[in-house]
Write a structure and sequence with these properties.
The chain has 15 helices and ten strands. It has helices spanning 12-16, 20-31, 45-54, 59-67, 86-94, 107-111, 140-153, 191-199, 216-222, 226-233, 237-249, 279-287, 300-304, 319-328, 335-343, and strands spanning 3-10, 34-41, 76-84, 113-117, 126-131, 134-135, 173-180, 205-212, 269-277, 313-315.
Length: 344
């Protein structure tokens, strides 16, 4: 069977409640699919209406998308998943309007709410609260239509968001970058979601997400400041530095023709943007020191790191680093749309 491309939508409530990590863990580990793209959206009325029409076979979901989604301040996270029988696999993991009363079998069972007001005996119960937490197509038509809508609105409604209105007036807010490193993507597993779940304890808002394949040129620029440090400490410092480049991009600079340095590498990472008070310091505290053996219990590098290079994730250490590093990986680039168009 040829590889299929499908998508899921994580709702504003699930985003606000920091459920993204756990949702992603289940999606990847249970499906065995590849995470191909991710993008934040601030849905317009037009976009929400289009999604509602696309999910007309799921009445509760359609009503939710039309009514609750386009309200001011609401944000949506869309994920692209690819692999064999992707549509059916994801639909079974996520659940739908008819399957929200189990004991955690589907993601909607666990994170969604489908509350009915019980009427008198013999009367039909009246729905008074519905929050799906996660939405996925169950049919090919919904998949194709939804992907087309996501591609169309990904520029105008999608990108790096600003959620200043979610914090107290006058709060000194900043944004920071986290890179979930390639060692977490050797096969579909819970590790990327686990990293995101640990970051949830910062209380920061997730405002940007991008699946990235770092080129050798980007890795050389990103880790350029590390080279003189390594060369001053070790006789073979450049060899160590090239190992870092290879780890992040998949190729050593000295072994790849110069004209290929700008091509996307074969290693995957996830770039995340968080916003909030003291975002840089809060994220680095949860990240832990570079050496996982020195990291405190419950930090990302203690939980997911192996050594100084293979240590789970990277986080910017200053406002200047945020600007430099996000520019290098082109955080505003809409490769989410490119992934959809390449498939369609």
């Amino acid at each position: 069977m040829a590889a299929q491309l499908t998508y899921v939508l994580i709702t504003p409530k699930a985003l606000y409640k920091a459920r993204v990590g756990n949702i992603l863990s289940r999606l990847l580990s249970r499906s065995g699919l590849e995470l191909l793209g991710a993008r934040m959206f601030s849905p317009s009325v037009e976009f929400s209406e289009g999604l509602a029409e696309n999910f007309s076979s799921q009445e509760l979901t359609s009503t939710f998308l039309r009514g609750a989604l386009p309200q001011a301040g609401n944000h949506l996270l869309a994920l692209l998943l690819q692999g064999e029988d992707a549509i059916n696999k994801v639909s079974c993991i996520v659940g739908d309007d008819e399957h929200m009363d189990g004991r955690g079998e589907t993601l909607r069972d666990t994170y969604g709410d489908h509350v009915l007001l019980q009427e008198e005996e013999g009367e039909v119960p009246a729905l008074y609260y519905f929050e799906p937490a996660i939405i996925a197509p169950s049919r090919r038509e919904e998949t194709v239509g939804g992907l087309q809508l996501l591609a169309t609105f990904s520029d105008v409604d999608g990108g790096i968001l600003d959620v200043s209105d979610q914090f107290p007036a006058g709060a000194k807010l900043e944004k920071t970058l986290v890179l979930i490193k390639p060692d977490n993507f050797h096969f579909p597993n819970t590790r990327p979601g686990g990293v995101i779940d640990l970051l949830a304890r910062t209380g920061l808002a997730l405002v940007g997400m991008k699946v990235h394949q770092m080129s050798v040129a980007q890795a050389k620029e990103f880790y350029g400041p590390v080279l003189p440090v390594l060369e001053s400490k070790f006789a073979d410092g450049r060899i160590h530095w090239e190992s870092i480049i290879s780890f992040m991009s998949g190729s050593r600079p000295s072994e790849l023709p110069e004209e290929e340095h700008h091509l996307p590498g074969n290693q995957y990472s996830i770039a995340l943007i968080y916003q909030g008070e003291g975002a840089i310091a809060k994220v680095r505290e949860v990240l832990g020191p570079t050496d996982p053996s020195r990291a405190a219990h419950g930090t990302i590098r203690r939980e997911f790191g192996k050594d100084i290079m293979i240590n789970g994730a990277h986080a910017s250490d200053s406002p200047e680093s945020v600007l430099r590093e996000t520019a290098i990986i082109r955080i505003e680039e809409n490769n989410f749309k490119s992934a959809i168009l390449a498939h369609c």
